[in-house]
Amino acid sequence: MTSVTPFLWFDKDALPAAEFYTSLIPNSEIKEVNRSPVSGDVFSLTFTVAGREFFALNGGPHYEFTPAISLFVECADQSEVDKYWDALTADGGEESRCGWLKDKWGLSWQIVPKRLGEVLSNPDPVKAKAAMDAMLQMNKISIAELDAAVGV
After folding, report:
1. Secondary structure element (H or E) that encloses residue 134, with its range
2. Across residues 49-71, what is the average pLDDT?
3. Distance, CA of 45 to CA of 31 (rounded, Å)
4. DSSP letters of 76-119?
5. What is the reported pLDDT for 118?
6. Tally of structural domains, the chain
7. What is the tens place of the pLDDT at every residue in 70-113?
């Protein structure tokens, strides 16, 4: 059976990144770590995040992550948004707009409450636009601010 697995190229921190991601998000684990037979350093590994498999490589400084690909995390409530946002922006991560951020390894994430999709798809176009306008002003998405924008 054909499978498709996201492949993440790190300079040298694939294992610490995978350890962090798997400690942060439930239903995640490191599956296999492959070491160089010459140096013993971690060369590659497989891990799961929320049950989705990833392959990571310590390939050196030749390539960097860009926001052209990101990991989308749909959160049930504001406490989940806050948990992931705070953890992923800590220690050198960078906030961006509209729920986007980069972690300290440069990987882009979207930390989005489920509520955002609900208010953006409001059948009242005035309320949907108000929700969009509110979101465009935010870095971390605030459910309370979204609800206020649509009059809830």
Report:
1. helix 125-136
2. 97
3. 7
4. SSHHHHHHHHHHHHGGG-EE-STTEEE-TTS-EEEEEEHHHHHH
5. 96
6. 2
7. 999 999 999 999 999 999 999 999 999 999 999 999 999 999 99
**β strands within the chain, DSSP E:** 7-10, 29-35, 42-49, 52-58, 70-75, 94-95, 100-102, 108-113
Q: Please identify which residue in the block is written with the tokens 């926001």.
A: 67
Share the mean pLDDT of the chain: 97
Overall pTM > 0.85: yes
Residues 72 and 132 in one domain: yes
Domain span including residue 76 = 65-152
Handedness of CA 63, 65, 67, 69 (dihedral sign): positive
